[in-house]
Specification:
alpha+beta, Glutathione S-transferase Yfyf (Class Pi), Chain A, domain 2, 2 domains, four-stranded mixed sheet, 7 helices, 4 strands, 7% strand, globular, binds glutathione
Length: 205
């Protein structure tokens, strides 16, 4: 299999971090230079159907995009350690938190970065108000995570899951927009520091 990746981009990093947690080393990683527009090249689009990374090309040539779809596929091939849930209840709770992490934190913080960082003007028509509104929305949503992390070491279970990976990468990426975890969110801070101390945190950056 081949993974189309782009260093420092947050969505491919989810897959790289996920692979590192599982010790997956037998997938070829191919760097796609977003700033050179390689993801918009005709051959890339013909393969992936979408101008973005990550993309996973399976051995039969089938290619899928969407970081979480790729992680789910890899979970079925490399089941341990389990990161998506071991039974229906746990799987549902992990899915709930993963969607919250993506929709309430990940997408707003990604918009905050894309609409404010000078380097990303190459990829986005930047509107400062969009950056500001999304940043504030993510800050509000983090309160929900702080309450949850007051009672649990990880977001969705008593162990690391895909929800933690999605949320931690979102916050780390937002440092590009000088985003900081608000001081009063001590539980998010404790969890985030622990996440960043994991060896897998360095994968894809
Ligand atoms: N929902 C998709 C988002 C993929 C995505 O937007 N990737 C970014 C990099 S983080 C990209 O390829 N951007 C290219 C562009 O904006 O032109 C996923 O989770 O994989």
């Amino acid at each position: 299999m081949k993974l189309y990746d782009s260093r420092r981009a947050p969505n491919p990093r989810r897959v790289r971090w996920f692979m590192a947690e599982k010790g997956i080393t037998d997938i070829e990683v191919i760097d796609v230079d977003l700033f050179k527009g390689e993801h918009r090249a005709a051959d890339y689009l013909a393969k992936t159907g979408a101008p973005n990374v990550p993309a996973l090309e399976m051995d039969d040539g089938t290619t899928i995009t969407e970081s979480l779809a790729i992680c789910r596929y890899l979970e079925s091939l490399y089941p341990e350690p389990n990161l998506f849930g071991r039974d229906p209840k746990e799987t549902a709770i992990i899915e709930m938190w993963t969607r919250r992490a993506e929709m309430l934190i990940g997408t707003p913080l990604m918009m905050a970065v894309r609409h404010s960082h000078p380097a990303l003007a190459a990829l986005e028509t930047q509107v400062p108000e969009v950056a500001q509104t999304n940043r504030q929305g993510a800050e509000r949503a983090l309160k929900l995570f702080d309450r949850r992390l007051a009672e649990s070491p990880f977001i969705a279970a008593d162990r690391l899951t895909i929800a933690d990976i999605v949320a931690a990468i979102s916050i780390d990426f937002a440092r590009m927009a000088k985003f900081k975890i608000p001081d009063e969110m001590t539980h998010v801070r404790r969890w985030y520091d622990a996440m960043m101390a994991r060896p897998a945190a360095g994968a894809g950056v």
